[in-house]
Amino acid sequence: GAVVSQHPSWVICKSGTSVKIECRSLDFQATTMFWYRQFPKQSLMLMATSNEGSKATYEQGVEKDKFLINHASLTLSTLTVTSAHPEDSSFYICSAPVTGADQPQHFGDGTRLSIL
Amino acid sequence: KQEVTQIPAALSVPEGENLVLNCSFTDSAIYNLQWFRQDPGKGLTSLLLIQSSQREQTSGRLNASLDKSSGRSTLYIAASQPGDSATYLCAVRGTGGFKTIFGAGTRLFVKA
Question: Between chains, do A101 and B100 touch, taking CB under 8 Å as contact?
Fold first, then answer.
């Protein structure tokens, strides 16, 4: 079945560092991918829609310059948290939709980001 | 804008009980609805998917129903076990752009 791979699974870094998270669709092409953020004991909040070959679409309240999204190929989307601060610490998870109402949405295993 | 609500927010039951988790959504123009399980600190595990044209889906001890017109779905767990303890998330995929919107989840604790 379709699989989405997300890397890294855990990142700990100093404040001010930029962190890149990769999301890959392993056996299907994804013209669109979604990036979510989850704070402890809260649900997943959609941050942005990544579109292959064009600009990402950000949800209201999400800083475009803070969370840079690049979807350079049909199998790879990246999220870069620029100049990360402790308040950016969170669980980030990507997903790729598969065409077909009977197909479940596939999610990566998530990246836990901790900014010291 | 789609909004998804889950009730209750938390639930604690003794082992063996049957239980129902509720999910409601405001926009009935959905592609499908998916129930997920999330263990602490982990990613999502897909449990059941119901297409917009379907009324229910079953997998083992789990049964999910969908009433699109009223904007409601339920997840029924039969004969609960301690291993069922997790957060259960309801996710609605819209017809425009295929965005998936999540509810806040129900944290379930099954006592042995």
Answer: no
